[in-house]
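seq:
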Amino acid sequence: MGRAIAFMTRTRGGRGQMDWTDWVSYGYLFLGVLLMFGPVVWLLLSSFKTEADIQRYPPTFLPYQQQTVVVDGHDSPLPLFEIIGGEHEGRTLAQLRRVGLVAQMIDPANPDERLRIDVADRQPVERFALATENYTELFERFNFLRFFFNSTFITVVATAIMLLVNSMAAFALSKYRFRGRTTVLLLVIGTLMIPQTVVLVPLFLITKELGMLNSLWGVIIPGAATPTGVFLLRQYMVTIPDEILDAARMDKASEWKIFWRIILPLSAPAIAVLAILAIMWRWNDFLWPLIVLSETDNFTLQLALNSFQGEMQTEWSNLLAMTVLTLLPIALVFMFLQKYIATGIANTGGK
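struct:
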């Protein structure tokens, strides 16, 4: 650990002195970290803010909540304010009501005395506090576990089917010689240039004719094969020596056994890359589930997020909390498996 810290903190100047190139390097790295993780940290902290704290201006970085006090004769706690101007400067008062630019306030120690305070002469008494109710309300108001199950089921099943179909197609295009192979490959590559929105209408009509509307399978099956996956795996499988396959055929191995016992293990780096990309694609998919699914019980987490945004009002506190919970699983997957993305893509593109 000490050697790693020494390596990361070494400088060109030597002996602990910073050269101007060190300042530029560390400044560039700090700016990159700030741009990448700044919005994520802001999102995480904002998810613990109350609705009033989110909408305040100017905004605050940390979540704060206004302190309240229980006063005899009042059913609900009253918000506290510190008086910063006027004849009552320096006192801490509780607000009864506000009418325009004037607030009616009382001293918690002497609740019988009513005071009129200009709103410009006061500031709220706040403290750092996490609004954990933003998360607990999700489980009370929405069937969060059902939405989570739908997203997980779609992601896992769609990824498994995609890996199987794409790997078989890539195996055929890389190791079998047949008439029209180049044409098929060019068609696969050509479909990469077609936007998904172009095929939404025919895809929806096909899904409707197959009776898969309002079904999780209607989201899974249309994405069973992707040109990106076929091309990625094909480019990797081309590098596998044909002599290995010929030796297996001489040992009476079937084509399925060759594919399952030889091709798939040797293509593990490329398959791992495609699996990670497929997980991120399916988990974050919004447009196609929005078109296919209309029943709330079949909604994914992405569609459930959309339900927080109404025509007249948006519940930002719950929306941000739901966003954090939605991003957490995919962030953990990417965090632990991101090294396979870099190495796999490098190997696939370099060979």
